[in-house]
Each structure stands twice: as structure tokens, then as C-alpha cells.
Amino acid sequence: MLAESQDEEQIIARVAALDIGKAELVCCVRVPAEGSSGKRLQEVSTHSTMTRSLTELANHLVELGVERVVMEATSDYWKPVFYLLEAHGLGPWLVNARDVKHLPGRPKTDVLDAVWLCKVAERQMLRPSFVPPWPIRRLRDLTRYRIDLVGVRTAEKNRVEKLLEDSCIKLSVVASDIFGVSGRAMMAALIAGERDPKVLAQLARSRMRTKIGRLEEAFNGHFDDHHRFLLARMLNRIDGIDVDIAAVDAQIEAHLAPFVAAAARLDEIPGIGPVAAAIIIAEIGVDMSRFPTAGHLVSWAGLCPGQNESAGKRKPARLRKGAPWLKTMLVQCAWAAKRKKDSYYKVQFFRLQSRRGPQKAICAVAASILTAIYHILRDGTEHRDLGADHFNRRSTEGQTRRLVHQLAKLGFEVHLHRTAEAA
């Protein structure tokens, strides 16, 4: 069966493409030839990535009346070029390198890459990647740096635990958190030179005092000056990172001020706290007009099930990489949400876990949370948990509709009345 297609090749009259490296970039510009119908003029030039050279390039593109500038997302080298062109009102497009595959069998050079990218762009065969506005970019820099600092602190804490194990100090066996008030007091005493297990155990506070007998046994090791030196350095490093995280948190709070209402609404979602809300806003912003539907946002985040169909058979497909910072945070929120009692997300997880396994189930919960986030940010509404009985209610209502429809097809007029027992 033949179907009429609406696709028409519409050439963008004035287009430029950039192949960006660390030290230099290649720019290809294609514009209509004067007095010649259908012919194109092409200009290829190489420029330094220093600010002065980029400014000259931007002014040149403005003089040529370029309508669209496209560039590949090459490491972080695209950022200064993108931001400078954006400041000149050129409205650059950042495109995914996966969407701009070079023709096979063709030599690969920076010039050929720029020309190919320009020809693909002028035929409107590309789609732009999401680049948030300047305030969100600043917030994103801070939240991502905070995540890195937390990761460094966690690695340092793991080194402390390994060091204590090396000295046969089994503090982590007795204390669930060796960096609590009691644990830090005991490690400070070790650094100060105290070695008596009974004295060290007496430093326990609050509920830890019920474990004094086990603590005395745990401190019966061979902690020497070598371990003392390393432990002091590690704890100092952890304290320094704590100070840095507190400073970054203050900056995040200041940059989050214009979006505090949106962050408060996201904080109401099970599994999402103030830190997670700030990270989510930093990754997707608060303007959802960039994503036509919630499905587009879920797909962009990399939480949409992949498709791999061949010969009429659907095969397993992995999730795309998507937005790794956002995806990681949403999965962490999903694990927290599935522990909340009487929550829709908890029931959704356990329903899917039995059939699809925990990993796919938690990704589905993360996608549901992101869908709720989309509607909250787009419509300005508050989160409403569907409840633990949502699936039971939906199943009953669906079955009722099907039975009524079947009876109607048989010519019966159906009037429903709920009995007292069912109510």
C-alpha cells in the first residue's frame, strides 16, 4: 500500500558547521550563489579557539547572515564556542555525534567532517541537543561538583575503613557508621596515642554504650605509628571535603533561589529530598516547553525501553546512555521511593520485579518519577501519590468497562449498582 509522504527537502539558505578541537576549529559555511538559481557557495576556514579568534568568527557569520550554526558535542571543547556564538545571537545548535555519522569509505579529516556536517545541517537532517539557559548552567556546575566531592569523600572514608582493618581494629563490625560522633571520638583518641581498648570503648555515646563489651574486643589490634600517620591525613582530608561541600551547598542555595517554589514541589515526591530536587532542576531546568511530552523527557534521560526489532521479532535492548547525571539521581530516588509505605512507586516496583527483575523495575519507577516531575514543572501542580491500591482499582474499573461493553454488544442495556458488600 502506497502512502503519500509529507517530507520535502527544504534547504536552509545560510548555514555553518563547526568541527571543534581543543586548539582550533574548522568552519564550513554554505550560502546561496548570487545570480545563480540552485547553486551554493562554500567557504572552509580554520580558526583558533582563543576568544579573540572566536569573536572574529562570530562577527563574520553575522555579516554573512547565517541562519543556523551547528557543532558536535566534542568533550567540553564545544562550550566556549557555543556560549560565545549564543551571545552574538546566532542561536547555535549542539548535535549528538551519533546523529552525524560519516559516510563509510570516505577519508576522515577535520575539513571533510565540517563540510559533511554543514551539508547534513542545511537539509535539516539534525536535531539539537538540550542546552539549558545560563542560570541553570551555573546551578548545574555547582550540583555536579557537589556530586564529585561526595564521591571523593566516600572514597576517602573507604580508605579509612581499610586502614583500620589493616591494623585489626574492627570498629566497623560494631558501629554501623564509624564516622558518627562516637567513631570520630575513638579515632581521634587513637591518633592522640591512646591504645587501651577499655578507655577507647568508654568514648562511646548514646546507643553505642550498649556495645561497650564488643567495642573493647574490636579495639584489640595492632594500631601503630604508621597507621596513626595515615589516619590523621585521611581524617583531615575528609574534614576539608566537608567544609568544601558546605560552601558549595551555600552557593547552590543562592543559585536555586529563583526556582525555590519548583524545588519545594519536587521535594514532595517520595524519594526526592532537597539535594535531589536541586540536582534534578539543574539537569532539566524548569521550562518543560523544550520537551513536547513526558515521554520525550523520559527518552532524553535514557530511561525509555530500547527497541530492537528484526524480522518481526522483538529482541532485548539496553537503555541508552541518555543523561547520566540525571539518570543516576533518579535511580537513587527510585530506590528510596520504593521503601516508602503505602506508596504507588513501592507497589509498582514489586509488581514489575517479579516479572522483569529488580533492575528493570527500578528503572521503570525512575521513569514514573520523571513523568511526575514533568507534569509538576509544566503545569505548576503538586504531587499526588496514586496510592498503593491504584493497580487494584484500575484493574476493577477496567474489567467492569469490558464486561459492560460486551453486554452492550449483545443488545443488553446495563445499569450498574454497587452492593453494600462490594462498597
How would you sum up this structure, described in words?
The structure is a single chain. The chain has 423 residues and is of the alpha/beta class. The protein has four domains: 15-122, 2-Layer Sandwich (Nucleotidyltransferase, domain 5); 135-255; 258-308 and 316-379, no CATH class; 390-423. The chain is 53% helix and 9% strand. The protein contains 16 helices and seven strands. The strands form two sheets. The chain has a five-stranded mixed beta sheet, with helices on both faces. The protein has a two-stranded antiparallel ribbon with strand order 6-7. Strand 1 (15-20) and strand 2 form a beta hairpin. Helix 4 (134-166) runs antiparallel to helix 9 (225-255) and helix 10 packs across helix 11. It is flat, with a radius of gyration of 30 Å.
